[in-house]
Amino acid sequence: MLRKILVSILLLTVYLGSCLLIYNSETNNNETSIKTTSIEKSENTANIKETDKKESNEDIIGTLTISKLNLSNNIYNIDNPHNNVDENVTILNDDSNLIVLAAHSGPGYIAFFDDLDKLELNDTINLTYKKKKHVYKIINIEEQAKDGTIEINKTNTKRLILTTCSKKDKSKQLVITALLEKDDFE
């Protein structure tokens, strides 16, 4: 009986040690993944009906403005029902160091990121977020496999990531990374 208990404890220790090693190797990796499966909900943005957009100022936590694209769109709290790509630019991650926004491209009035491919390195993006004005400068533009995630390098810098479907390749997604250049209180 004692022998069975000792073997059980030994097996449990090996199992927990293995789990800890796997966890540490995943968290020390220099990349993190942000899930983007929510932006794959609707294929045909042209046929989506206008929704009732009655909201209070408490529901809106920010505004994305890209002057070069003539784009200005409200951002809703991550838990708000209006925070979905079938209505708005959607916030997928709202960590203070990493904000990830997604929206549709293509035909239709909800294709807010349709012209995202016109952005270039060093273009600026303005984001009013949680009562602070932020100015970001684009530092990277790439396409990644459209597999429900975005691979993002871990850093301590404050960044904004914009993503949408690629116009060039339906199996890819456009990922634009911008670095915080300036932020002021409103």
Structural overview:
This protein has 186 residues and is mainly beta. The longest helix is centred in the first third of the chain and has 26 residues, at 2-27. The chain has a single domain, classed as Sortase (Sortase, Chain: A, Beta Barrel). Strand 4 and strand 5 (98-102) form a beta hairpin. The radius of gyration is 21 Å and the shape is elongated. Helices cover 14% and strands 40% of the residues. It has one helix and ten strands; from the N terminus they run αββββββββββ. Residues 17-29 and 37-55 have low confidence and may be disordered. The chain has one helix at residues 2-27, and strands at residues 31-35, 60-66, 71-76, 90-95, 98-102, 124-129, 132-145, 149-153, 159-165, 172-185.
